[in-house]
Specification:
It is a single chain. Helix content is about 85%, strand content about 0%. It is an all-alpha fold and about 270 residues long. It has one domain: Orthogonal Bundle (ABC transporter involved in vitamin B12 uptake, BtuC), CATH 1.10.3470. Helix 2 runs antiparallel to helix 10 and helix 3 runs antiparallel to helix 4. The longest helix has 26 residues. The two termini are about 35 Å apart.
Amino acid sequence: MFRLFAEMLSYPFMQRALIVGILVSLCAALLGVSLVLKRYSMIGDGLSHVGFGALAIATALGWAPLAVTIPIVILAAFLLLRMSESSKIKGDAAIALISSSALAIGVITVSWSSGMNTDVNNYMFGSILAMSREDVVLSVVLSVLVLILFLVFYTRIFAVTFDETFSKATGAKAELYNMLLAFLTAVTIVLGMRMMGALLISSLLIFPALTAMRVCKTFRSVIICAAVLSVVCFLIGMGLSFVVSSPAGATVVVVNLAAFLIFAAIGQVKKQ
């Protein structure tokens, strides 16, 4: 195992992928617990499709992909939150509306542009080779920012996650912390799209949280377990991907699925 990771780390592109992947996995696991408990699980899928549409447009126009995509996905996250709270279009319907529209715009942009197929394929299905040095620097800075903000506002996010009505009654600005959660989720999704792909990034949000909930019963224990699981599954997935030459994103998801099945079985045994 150690020899395998030593060989992986001898390649610069693997070093970049592991650094960003570990940070993004941590961010996704922490945020995923709140999203699953608030029943916002599919927001990751919706925002990743928005990200794909924004990336397609940015690539076609020759703009910096991440610099364009991050603000657009953040705006989409705020819009989804606003629609879910105050509009006649609720939750899953709002996500389906925005994600399908953004995906359609992205597909049309790709069909009109020549020479974009490789870039778009990387964003749809993920590619560890797509990480440039500039992407890594931006991803590390933003990932650390996400982690710091989550830890600083942990108690507020905890309160809003479990009882938003009570939080409002006590004077807490629930809307503000919901917007913070949406902002952090949007940034995490855009950062993870390069490696996991737009079609698979939402799994990093959902799997660790659901897996941890099979065994752990308190919010803090679920958070810690999900964070550890996410990083371990990512490292195992990257190792398997390197050995068998399979797509990195898909391999990480399969490892997460295996972990979920194991923890689900353990949870069933503990109940008996």
